[in-house]
Design a protein that fits this description.
This protein is an alpha+beta fold. The chain folds into three domains: 215 residues, Sandwich (Jelly Rolls); 58 residues, no CATH class; 93 residues, Malonyl-Coenzyme A Acyl Carrier Protein, domain 2. The chain has eleven helices and 17 strands. A hairpin with a 2-residue loop joins strand 2 and strand 3. Helix 5 crosses helix 6. It binds fe (ii) ion (FE2). Fe (ii) ion binds next to loops.
């Protein structure tokens, strides 16, 4: 395991998840943290011109792209690069560089995959880089739970209890003056050091303060299905009932209609089949980014995995339902009951060698069926393989 989380998923869900912050000191070994080489290489590969992907925050505001990017014509293609002198100048003066939604960066993806495997949900990765002791962010809360992994240096975090618990994407702390932070009572005043991990539920106020030295942290946001997602899904289904398609006139006139509407909506929400279908669609819409294996799967001469292959799920953010089905990467794959123990093995954090996976299977026909299944799941990019 890359991240040492000292509690079980069950314990985490019961004691911390959506309830309170959890600080794990020395959760990642120093040698496994991102190096400056990785960080320096990842940044220029991000979508620099996207407003939401790369931000340079200075004195509480987002700087305009022209302040630190330059556009150039590369044989007829317009490209963008960091204007290094400007970027360095702003950061020397205290700016924080933020890269959001980083994907396909193997050194960073492995952290996301571990969090994803731990909680079984999708993730969103952001890097925050600063020097100096300037505050680039005001006290705020985020609308997604995060795991902050301190990769370089230190950062002080002042944390306060939520005034609007469990906000969603449409909620922004700066746009909700009615829910001011009570700064008189600090819940946690911590120094996040290299290798430390902080779980911070959404809605918890935080004031991350650089302490006059380098600081890089990776924030991994998590995206489980929320009740709100289910509610939105249900409202689309409810229009199958005529009552949801009628016009409204006045409250007095529509009272009976509203009663009926409330009943069909409530019945739909509580319907187990709807709940299961919603989850299936929720996971079906997600995609997992992973490296290609062209040398194996794009070569028409290969039809099976070689003996020395190591295999495992990329992450646990796919979904198995009670009907023996894997929903991942837009595929729904039916799984025979007898393969369930194999799938459980594959859920382990580290990849498993093919012979070890198969050694408990005696029946040759079953062995072949499992090999076929593993080939298919790898071909579809659901399993990751190492030769
Ligand atoms: Fe934040």
């Amino acid at each position: 395991m890359l991240i040492n989380i000292p509690v079980s998923v069950k314990q985490f869900r019961e004691e911390y998840f959506e309830q309170k912050p959890f600080l794990i000191k020395n959760a990642v070994k120093k040698e496994n943290l991102l190096s400056w080489k990785h960080i320096n290489e990842i940044l220029p590969r991000c979508n620099l011109i996207s407003e939401s992907k790369i931000k340079l925050m200075y004195q509480g505001n987002k700087l305009a792209k022209e302040a630190y990017l330059e556009q150039y014509d590369d044989l007829g293609t317009i490209r963008y690069k960091f204007h290094q002198e400007s970027l360095y100048n702003f950061m020397r003066a205290g700016a924080t560089l933020v890269a959001n939604g980083i994907v396909n960066e193997p050194h960073l993806d492995i952290f996301c995959q571990e969090i994803s495997s731990f909680l079984g949900c999708h993730t969103f990765a952001s890097l925050y880089i600063a020097f100096n002791s300037e505050r680039s962010f005001k006290n705020h809360w985020d609308s997604r739970d995060i795991f902050a992994i301190q990769m370089k240096g230190r950062k002080r975090w002042l944390i306060y209890k939520p005034t609007f618990p469990n906000p969603l994407y449409m909620h922004k702390s700066k746009e909700m003056p009615l829910y001011q932070c009570d700064t008189s009572e600090v819940y946690m005043d911590i120094m996040l050091e290299e290798g430390d991990v902080l779980y911070l539920p959404r809605g918890w106020w935080h004031d991350p303060i650089p302490v006059g030295e380098e600081t890089v942290h990776l924030a991994i946001g998590i995206f489980p299905p929320y009740a709100n997602n289910y509610l939105n899904w249900i409202t689309k289904k409810v229009v199958d009932n005529e009552v949801a398609r009628k016009s409204l006139h006045s409250f007095a006139q529509d009272e009976v209609l509203l009663e009926e509407l409330a009943k069909v909506t409530s019945d739909s929400i509580k319907d187990r089949a709807n709940y299961m279908r919603f989850l299936e669609e929720f996971y079906d819409s997600k995609r997992i980014e992973s490296p290609l294996n062209l040398e194996i799967f794009a070569n028409h001469k290969n039809t099976s995995l070689s003996e020395d292959t190591k295999i495992g799920f990329i992450s646990k953010n796919h979904w198995h339902d009670k009907y023996q089905k894997i929903i991942a990467n837009g595929y729904g794959i039916a799984i025979d009951e007898k393969f369930k123990p194999i799938l459980e093995h594959l859920q382990q954090p580290s990849s498993i060698a093919l012979p070890d996976l198969l050694n408990s299977i005696e029946n040759e026909e079953d062995k072949q069926s499992i090999l076929d299944l593993l080939w298919s799941l790898s071909y579809l990019g659901i399993l990751k393989i190492q030769s």
